[in-house]
Structures are given as C-alpha cells and as structure tokens.
Amino acid sequence: MTDKIKKASRHTSQSEGLIFEKSAHGKRGIELPPLDVPAIDAAAALGAAHARGEIIGFPEVSEIEVIRHFTRLSTWNYAIDLGMYPLGSCTMKYNPRVNEFVARLEGIATEHPYQPLELSQGCLKILQLLETCLLEITGMDAVTLEPSAGAQGELTGLLLIRAYLQSRGNPRKKVLIPDSAHGTNPATAVIAGYEVENIKSESHGQVDVERLREQVTEDVAALMITNPSTIGVFEQRIAEIAEILHAKGALLYMDGANMNALAGVARPGDFGVDVMHLNLHKTFSTPHGGGGPGAGPVLMKKFLEPFRPVPVLTVKPDGTLALDVNRPRSIGRVRAYCGNFGVLVRALAYTLAYGPGIRQATEDAVLNANYIRKKLEGVYDLPYSLPSMHEVVFSDARQKKHGVSTMDIAKRLIDYGFHPYTTAFPLIVPGALMVEPTESESKEECDLFVDAMRAIAEEAATNPEVVKTAPHSTRVGRLDEVGAARKPILRWKPSASGEAAD
Amino acid sequence: MRYLPKSPSERQEMLAAIGAKSIEELFASIPAAHRLKTPLRLPGPLSEMEIIEFFKARAAENSVGYTSFLGAGVYNHHRSVVTDALLQRGEFLTSYTPYQAEISQGTLQAIFEFQSLMCQLTGQEVANASMYDGSTALTEAALMAERVTGRSRVLMARSVHPEYRQVLATYARNSGLQVEEIAFTASGQLDAAALRSAVSSEVAAVIVQSPNFFGVLEEIPALAEIAHAKEALLVVGITEGVSLGAVRPPAEADIVAMEGQSFGLTPSYGGPFVGVIASREKYVRQMPGRLTGQTVDAQGRRGFVLTLATREQHIRREKATSNICTNQALCALAATMHLCLLGKEGLREQAQQNLSKARFALAELEKIPGVRRAFPGAFFNEFVIELPRSVKLVNAALLRDKIIGPLALGVFYPELSKRGLVCVTETTTRVEMERFAASLRRALAQPLE
User: Fold this and answer.
1) Spatial CA neighbour of B14 closest among A234, A434, A262, A366
2) Is the terminal CB of chain B with fewer CB neighbours within 10 Å at N or C?
3) Sign of the alpha-carbon torsion through A122, A123, A128, A134
C-alpha cells in the first residue's frame, strides 16, 4: 500500500466456506414450540404420492454458525455505511436507520393485504400521505405506488400511454429512446408492445431537437427521456421537446432515475412531462440491499389517471380510505397486493424527515458533484462541458494513452478505500467514469476521493501496471468472468451423493 | 439537517473552490421558468422521535390485537430475530448490486447459496437471484416458456391465485401472448380432462399452482405428462414455500415460479417479498433476472460473479429476456438466512406442524352445524370451508371477537359465494383455533338480521 492511500488500511478478514460445507446431521438453528395438537405424519395426511422424503444436502447448522457465517460474509462487502459509494445513476445515499425501525413496527410489518379495510386504515393513510408528497415533489396530478421497481414503473408508464392512445383510436407503433438511456428503457418498450427507435445525442450530449422534430411522426407513441440525462446535464430544451411531441399527439415519458438533482428545485410536471417514474431506492433513500427491493411509483397528468393499475387508493364518502379494483379503463394489475409496501413506508419516513428541506439535500448533492468535477478537471478528460448537476461523467481518454482503462481505474479505487464509480456507462461516452457522490458525503470524504483519483491518475502515467492489475487489497483478485459464463456453476451440489432428489 | 454532513462554512468553502457565488448558480442550467420560486408544501421536517410517533399512531389504526386466519399467498410464519439482526448489518443493507465482484463477495456468495437452496427445495436444476414477487415470477415464467417453445398460447389453471392471473393478463395483453383458462373440478383440482382437450402443439405452457389457491395439491406428474405429450412446458407456481418441507417438489415441471415470503419475510401489507424462478439447466439462457456463478481468480481462489449477463437489459437492451434490473436481493438474503437457521430438520418439523394444525382446525370447524369442507383434495395448510350464509356477514361477527376470519372467495370466484379460505400455520395456537370455532358457531347460531 502506498502512503497516498489515506482512507483504507489492511485488516484481517475471516475465511468462510459455503453454508453447505459446514453442515452436519443433527444440528439446527431454530426450534419450534412443541406441537399443541395431535401430530399427523405427512404421508398419512397427503398420501404417499404427495409426501416428500429427505431434502438431500439441505443445510444443518446451529444458530452461532449462522451468525458467524453471515457476519463473515458481510465483512467482504463494501457499503455506504463504510464510505463513499459514488456509483453514477444509482444514488447511493445514506439509508436512515429510523426508516428500518418504523418499517418493522408491529402493526406495520405484521399487516396482511387481505385484512378488512377498517383494520387497515393506518396502512392506507401511509400510502395516501406518500402519494400526496410525491405529487407535490414532482408537480404531477395522479400516482400509482404499485410498481415494484424502476423497470416495472417504466412498463406501467408505457402501458398507461398505450391505453390512452388506444382510447383515442390508435396505440401507435414506436417509442423513441436516446442513445444515452438506461438499458431498461428499450427492454421495457418491447414488453409494452412497441418498437424502439434510437435517437442520437448532439455534440453536447443533449437530445438533438432538430432531428427529433423529424423523427416524431404519427407512428410515435412517446419519447422516454432521462432528465437530467445520464451525463448529469439538464435537458435545456425540455419544454420544446414536449411541445414537439404533443403537436404530433405523442407523449413525454421521464425516467426519474436522476430525480436527486431536482427534488425541491424543479418539477417535471412544470416542464411538460406527461408520465414518469421515481426510484424510491435512489432519491428516497430506501436501502439497495445488494440489489433490491426497490419501488417505482408512477406519476402522471390527469388525462392518464383513468388508466391507473388496480388497486387504486380512494377516499370513501365517510372519509375512510379504500382500495378500488373496479376500474373499467385500468391497464390491469401489475403485481399482487399493494406494491412494495415496506419500501413505501421507508420512503415516507425519509420524506417526513426533510419536509420542504429536501431542497437542501438536492443542493448538497449538486454541490458535491461540481466540487469533484472542479478538482478533477484537467486530471481526467471531461467529454461534455455543459454544467453538471448531481453527477459528473469523465472519460479515460488521458489514461488510455498509458493502456489504463476506466475499469482499471475503478478497480484501483478499491485499494484506496472507495467503491468504484459507474464504469462504461452511458454508452455515448467511450470509457466513461460516471461519478455521483450524493449529498451524504462530507467535504472531507469528497477530498479523500479527489486525492485518490489524482493519485491513480499519477500511477497510470508512472506505474500503469499497478493500476492494470488492481485491486491488490481484496480477498480475491479479478475473477474469471469468461470462464464463469462458459461453464456456468450456478449452485452447490453434494460431492458424492449426487443430486438432491426425492 | 441530521442526515447532511456539511457545516454552512464548508458549503461556502466548496462553492468558493468551484468558483460559484451562490448555490443558485449551480442550478442555472435549468431554465428559470422551470425553477421553483417557493418551497414545496410538504409536511415536516420531523425529528426521529416525531417520525416514530407518526408511524406508531398509524400502526395503532391497523389490526394489532387480532388473530388472523388469512393466507392466500401471504403467510404468517415464525421468523427468528437472528435473521433480522444479521439483515440489518450495513454491509448487506447499504450495498449495491454486486457488479464489482471483488468487494461484493459477501452478497455474491449469499446469492449463490440462495440459488442452491431454491434448487434443493423445488427439485429444479437452476434458480435465479430473485424476481419481484410470486406474481411477476409466474408471469415471467410464462414469457420464458414462450421464448423456449416459440409458441404464444398458454393454458392457465383457474385455481391459480386470482391476482397472479391478473398480472399475467396485464403483461400478455400487448406482447402477443394468448391466455386461456382451465376450470377446476369438484375436488378443487385442475380439470385434467379439460386440459387434455385444450392442450395442442400451439401451447407454450400449462400453468398451475400447487398447493393451488384453494390449498389443494395438484397432480404434478400427471399434468406434466399431458403438457409434455404436446411438447408444451409445465409451469408450476408455489405461493406457500413451507409446503416444500412436506410436499413432494414439482420435479417434473419445466419452470417453477415461487413466492418466498414464507421464508422469514413479514407480511408487510403485501411486500416486499421475493419471487424465484427455477428451471432446467438447458433453459438457463432464456431465464430472466440475475444469476450468480462460481469461478476463480488468477491465483485459483474460489469467488462468485454475476454471470450470463448477456440475457439482461443492461447488455442486450431491447433484445433482453426481461426488463428487470433491481430485484429483491435483501429479501432473498433474508430467506437464505432463515432457511439456514431452520435447516433440514426444522423445515420438516415446521411443515408437519402446519399440516397437523390445519387438520385440527378443519376438524373443529366441521363440528359446527352447516359448516363443511368445500374441496376434498389433499391439502397442506389452507382449506376452503362452505358456510350456510355469506362469508362477509360471518366475518363481521368474528371481528367483534377480534378474529379476522376466512377470505371470502366470492370476491374472486362468483360461483364460490359462501366459501371461505382458511389458513393455519405453526404460529396459530390450539387456543386460537378453538376460539375461532366457538366464535363461528355463535355467529351461525344468530338469527339473520
């Protein structure tokens, strides 16, 4: 380790095999109270054809072994709780612990989606208040909290557009998507029954409005736009883009992945957006948890409201809340029950903690990104010069001359005690380094990050091998991904006894 | 604000370093017309104490103090406090999708263990890293069958969870998939004769659930034969994972779509849960969602990576097998911890307790005049009772005794009015079951108003 590495130092971590390798017959980690009714054997109750034998290879371990197993595994992860996690487009901000506490309360975590409405008013009030807050933050007219994550929100949004256009006689054929968009956008459009037409960015990374004007025809259902775009820049002609679409009867969909740049400062409902989704696991601080769960509420203008997925939260004449499933123009149901309720609880707790002060979080996020941009300008290539909002995108153009790529720099950053930024995205920037610090980083942490990035740039010039072979401080080095895909090993199997069978 | 780690003077220092006079300058790229002139009208800011107070007040407006006999895809099972203590370690809670494998080995190894456990439970060869929930897993299984077979019709048992069927209908509507429903018989099982005459060489998949929505087990080997005779796939949905501790797994199925909520996740008013897709190895490249695979580093040390990503949206964009990105990783981790704690013997015992208690409850209820079991097929921990009057009326009476009674099936099946779905798990005590039976007896003895 060099003396430039200020944030991290070596420490011992424990080795740990797979849980299956620790298993031995007769151990267990949960004991149930004795059965208080007559015991019935499975074969007797179900018939021999339906009864199951032993699950070969299923783990048998004690409570302390489970504690140690997962605690040891946990120490092999990097996390927001350890330090800056500047993954661009992912908004890795602090996950407040009170949100976890309230989501686990008896009366919140314990509630069944089919219990009577008169015993669910607390749950429904939580949903209602979150709806009100999200509408105020986005400036939209109606909302559904059902979608499970951003991609399902996108699908819900496009189905709303489709249902609306269909109601006017023609669902149309195409959805336009900028080349800088997230991969979920085109993948979603196909499921909604649309063809994807890519639109090229102009030289500043913004939507090419003149070309767009030519591309928007009577065949186009919508444009899916991310604003600020994936290079972290506000689409300055957004209102004009909306007008071009609306003039041809097409709609403007906004991917709200980057809403952390706008909350409290500007509202999509005020600049021509017809429908959008939010990622509550980004802007609204619900934990990423190693890849989920998320929630992807969809917000819309009034004319799309009749098409909302069921159930729809409604207020009855007596003032109590209800869930309406009898909605003849609805696009249908997008998942079972009432969305990822536990995630919605956390998002509301976050929103209440800030109130109108959510603007301060946005300001700090933008301040951090611009501070890092300023400090690294000239060290790393800045392919687009327009002002950055909550994230900044550099390229590896300078380091490439020494044979060092964005992936190498990212891996070396691990040795310096940071999680890497997002590599190689957006696709319009060759060798992209996409840095999103969020508001959760102090000046001190930002300075450490800047120092680390500067030190790596120097290493790239003077000792490129150390960067190209990084990381050097982790339990495992770079892993053989090609081998993993060529001969996939996707599960543990007992070594001698063969397949788990019944 | 307590979540923000900057002092006012540090903000000024940073602005000065940037060369900006004010924070407003950093937002100048947003046209002035679009910038808010006034603060948002939001409740708050609230302190931690006030937030807790707010949610406790909401919790008090819910069902605390009631005994519930609801199941229908969401089950109240025992959860060890160990799972929740481990789950809240920041290294699990506050990490991202494990794309940077070298500093995500904890999450990756746990996902590998999850995939292995799901294969063991379902009798399948491969399982993915999770889907949103059981309903979207079943839908994605249907779309997967469409890709595998190149056919675009599916036959769906009417005894599948009604909300799951509605979700498939939403996805199918615009993707060219046709869905035809197959009726159930008086036993509560899928009508095999109707299936046999409906299945053809145009059918991509036969989709069933077992135990089905009525709690009744389907005859999986026989149904597989009917489907396979026309080279259609058999997709089996499972909403009650604990059943797999006692019930033979659907090994003959080509795809299993499971809801894993029963493995250590709270009901949480319907989510977040964890969906699973498990299948045969030969179909792995048509699977949706993330997969973790075992590999080695340059020194030959074992490690795990996300693999076969060329199926996924971030690589394949419009040609991806699914649009799913964020999944339910933390819920999958909870299920993994829970199943490790429970272990082979614990799961078997838990399943046996569910079986035994459900039979005790049924026997108690059947002693009441006018109450009888609606479907005679083999069942796990849920069963349908037929009442002499509307379930809604009966439930209103039960509520007065602080009992949340059976799910009224007439809401989903007009022909099943006066039928209610009852669920009993290992957490239901004998006293609660006896109290339920006594309350129901009293309710039915009351003259109709």
Assistant:
1) A366
2) C
3) positive
State the distance between the two ends of chain B, measured CA to CA, in whole angstroms. Answer: 58
Q: How far is CA A155 from CA A141, A177, A224, A258, B275, in A?
A: 19, 14, 11, 18, 18
**Structure confidence at residue A501 as a pLDDT band (50, 70, 90):** very low
Tell me which residues of chain A, numbers 312 to 371, contact chain B at a CB-CB cutoff of 8 Å: 331-343, 345, 349, 351-361, 363-364, 366-368, 370-371
| Residue of A289, A387, A490 lying closest to B115 (CB–CB) | A490
Nearest CA-CA partner of A283 in A144, A439, A129: A439
The CATH classification number of B67-78+343-445 equals 3.90.1150.10
Beta-carbon count within 10 A of B57 CB? 12
Nearest by CB to B326, which of A37, A126, A150? A150
Q: What is the pLDDT of residues A131-184, one digit of tens each?
A: 999 999 999 999 999 999 999 999 999 999 999 999 999 999 999 999 999 999
Do residue A502 and residue B404 have CB atoms under 8 angstroms apart?
no
The per-residue pLDDT for range A230-248, each reduced to its tens digit, is 999 999 999 999 999 999 9
Q: What is the reported pTM?
A: 0.97
Smallest Cβ–Cβ distance between A111 and the set B46, B63, B272 belongs to: B63
CA distance B277 to B4: 40
Residues belonging to chain A: 502
ipTM above 0.85, yes or no: yes
3-state secondary structure of A101: helix
If one looks up domain B81-338 in CATH, what number appears?
Answer: 3.40.640.10
What's chain A's Rg over C-alpha atoms?
26
Nearest beta carbon to residue A477 from set B2, B100, B297: B297
Q: In A, residues 262-301, which contact B (CB 8 Å cutoff)?
A: 262, 264-267, 270-271, 279, 281, 287-294
Question: Which domains, ranges and CATH numbers included, belong to chain A?
Answer: 77-474 (3.40.640.10)
In chain B, domain spans:
67-78+343-445, 81-338
Say if residue A34 is preceded by a cis peptide, omega within 30 of 0.
Answer: no
